[in-house]
Amino acid sequence: MALAGNPNAGKTTLFNQLTGARQHVGNYPGITVDHKEGFFHHKNQKITLTDLPGTYSMTAYSAEELVTRDYLVNERPQVVINIVDASNLERNLYLTCQLLELGVPLVIALNMMDVAKDRGIEIKAEVLEKLLQVPVVPIIARSGFGREELLDACIRLTTKEQQWNPRDISYGEDLDTTLTSLVAKIEETALLRDCYPARYTAIKYLENDEQILEKGQQADPDTARILEEIVAGTSAHTQKTFDVYPEALIADHRYGYIKSILRQGVITHTFDTDRLYTSDKIDKVLTNRLVGPAIMLLILFGVYQFTFSWSELPVIWLENVFGWLGNQVDNRLPDGLLKSMIISGVIDGVGGVLGFVPLIMFMFFSIAILEDSGYLARVAFMMDRVFRIFGLHGSSVMPFIVSGGIAGGCAVPGVMATRTLRSPKERMATLLTVPFMNCGAKLPVLALLIGAFFSDNKARYMFLFTMLAWVVALVAAKILRSTVLRGAPTPFVMELPPYRFPTLRGLLIHTWERTYQYIKKAGTVILGISILLWALMTFPGLPDGKTAFFEQQREALMATATTAVAAEIQATDGELSEQAAILSQQIAQINNAENEARLQNSIAGKFGSSLEPLTRLAGFEWRTNIALIGGFAAKEVIVSTLGTAYSMGETNDGESESLGKRLKNDNAWNRVVAVAALVFIMFYAPCFVTVVCIAKESSWKWAFFSITFNTVFAFIMAVVIYQVGMFFNLG
Ligand code: GDP
Ligand code: MG
Fold first, then answer.
1. Nearest CA to ligand 1 atom 6
2. 142 in ligand 1 pocket by Cβ < 6 Å?
3. Which of the ligands is closest to the CA of residue 10?
4. Which CATH number is 2-159's, of 3.40.50.1470, 3.40.50.2300, 3.40.50.300, 3.10.180.10?
5. Global pTM?
6. Distances (CA, A) of 178 to 98, 131, 252, 256
7. What tens digit of pLDDT does each residue of 227-254 get?
8. Which CATH number applies to 172-269?
9. I need a surface site. Which of 45, 205, 415, 624 has the fewest CB within 10 A?
10. Would you say the CB of residue 146 lies under 6 angstroms from ligand 1?
């Protein structure tokens, strides 16, 4: 008999338990892998037992795996005891699968039953036995429990007429078809038939197993070449269709096979033991089918409540700081391009983005708590059930969350995280829909518009818009999966890490890392784009003749003033008399009109205006258009550009209003426009970096698809919202 199993499954313990001192250790010739053999008596039979090296698999990757496989096919033991760790059944059964495929006479020793029980795992050996169709005997190798039953089962197996009996596992249509033709060829030529079952050899060819390939070459080069050609064709096909090698598909299907067996009532979790893991107890509530999702929504809502209420004051302070800074520059620098660039391009632009740092920080802090405690993995686990309905995979959940599923992520790592998906279609569907999530860059836009137009219920609206992002992303995924990306789902395995108490240090580090990324981006990329957009919004300046026109108007006004009043206005500081105040107000209006004329005549302004006939359908005026175009570069730019666009058209009367207030007071904006704009911003083309990333992960074709599909889709939504909203007069 031979003992096979994963490392640490208890092989040596059982070996010692059975053979006692009657054993000897040697090395396999030429390699440093232990060869341990012993003997003992059971029911008047002398049994020789070999302890094989521990392996997780039987490929040709390591000496241990080769030794195990060679021993089994060359020595042909009468019984192979597969020792399996019951507390880790899923992983251990992977080797079992391969032993079944090889067809060795198998008895499964379900070891560590005590450990499993302590963990609240109850395993029904008889159910497993029925499903696997091999004897399964529960044992505790350390105490000797189950020893007699195990040996009886082994003896029973030897008394039957023993034939090797290979098990067929299906590897999906593509591979099964190939396997059939490989098997036909192998049986026809009897290639390696003295050692391996035909299907086993065929599988090894598909797995690209070096040892078997070499043996095949030596035994029958012609047949081997034909087999290799068939395999090369299939491999190219799976790479094209699934983006994976056949080996990966084979591994997937083996796990799928195990999963389907375990799901049929083999494992039940009992929770009445005292030494039950706290994590399992918590999970029983938090991932409960009914209570779990409700708690999840509550927690998310709590996150928004916390973020918005705690960041409210700091955001106002920062706004004031930037406002003050703007005034300082305004008072100290002479009028002109430099001043305009510093105020409108740098301070209003970057300040608009940096102003949200406290909010971002509190959001990241909340997410760090969820992540470090292990709760985020539970969210993924629960969402898996929902995801399947929409044709996505459990592994799609993490990319969604990373991209901003809880608001505040980034689609770039989200797109990269889709690499864990093995099915190309599920991966594409995930890749194309993760940019719908509310990433950290959309957060300031959301905060700005929600803060300005729905200030009484900020957390609730934030929550609503997050839900909306999910709903839209999932529906879009479903549409993609039932049209351009139609295909079958793949199985999903996910481990839940135990709950941990997050450390304050860890939380602060995580919060800071992400906040710093945000600040860095505002100081570099956003600053650059902001200045560029400022230039586009400033040049070529006023149309010919207009400069003189405004200058004349101002002069005419000043001419009406007395010397004293004129001096008052020139002085800029100090209280103004009533007359001077009126006059300065009138001058401000002229300045305002001048600025607006300049903006409208600028490159960006013209472009924004030329789009206006179309965007009016969604309620966007030309200034908003400028910001939305800027948003293609990076979504943060929307806020900074709105800041610039609406500060340029504003009076320079020294009083700095927050952007939110300006929008609220602007005629072109109201609640309906705000919602239409929000929806458009949430769902239109991903930012430039994300598009490049999508192209790199798939192709430029898909990247362009993503730009056009998203933009058209977002625009239609915005138009519907605006038209319906205005029809019911909700603005
Ligand atoms: P091998 O790598 O498969 O040879 O595993 P070992 O026989 O070295 O066992 C690994 C560890 O598991 C050792 O610390 C054993 O004492 C322990 N162990 C083995 N069987 C049992 C069991 O049934 N119950 C418990 N609690 N521990 C066991
Ligand atoms: Mg050992």
1. 10
2. yes
3. 1
4. 3.40.50.300
5. 0.54
6. 19, 27, 17, 20
7. 999 999 998 888 877 767 788 888 888 8
8. 1.10.287.1770
9. 45
10. no
